[in-house]
What we know:
Mean pLDDT: 89
Strand content: under 5%
Low-confidence stretches: none
Structural class: mainly alpha
Number of strands: 0
Distance between the termini: 23 Å
Amino acid sequence: xxxxxxxxxxHDGASRLLQPGSAFDWFxxxxxxFAVNPAVWIAMMVIVIVIYVGLAVIPVIGYLAxxxxxPLLAAGMLLxxxxxxxxxxxxxxxxxxxxxxDTGALMTLGVFYMLAMLLLFVLVFLLLxxxxxxxxxxxxxxxxxxxxxxxxxxxxxxxxxxxLIVMAVWFAPALVVFSHMPAAAALKASFHACMxxxxxxxxxxxxxxxxxFFAALPLGLGFLVLGPVLAGSVYASYRDTFITA
Length: 245
């Protein structure tokens, strides 16, 4: 016998096809989310910066830990965005919500992100080192060309594969905490949605680069505002991209 109310079916990761201009609306919504409580958002961003700067000074382990923690901190920011969007009061502790719910799936995302970036680093290092070593071994103009070619190939591989990895991770924390998808399914759905709306996300990426340039001008203090706005824009893009129950 059916139990009532009947629970909603699990989200299957279906996504919409968006217009490129959607990116502008995501930033407008991100700003509106930030404007709900700027003080709390800035405090959370300060904590995030301190965490990543602290990890950056630890050789190798800190580099890997930063990727491992990113989905958990991203989930906290996204959950805070939802609270702001529905009119609930924000707390600085919301930043760590990912450590209190769906933690296993978020950690799985972190492990994937960490290992993927580590393997990419090793691959690029081998390509770069091989090209330079081959060029130096020839010790002539052709060798210089080989070395420069190796650097160019390594740079292209880094750009392409890192973009693919980011596409898989981009929406995954949101899909885990809001749609309760398993980590593997969330990665697949995120990648498919980004590929489906590649033009929209290229526009979003260009806008982000421009905003980062201006945020960096006042001694980087602009990132205290831009960080929460970007989090809000990711939340808005998730709501716009995915068909949820």
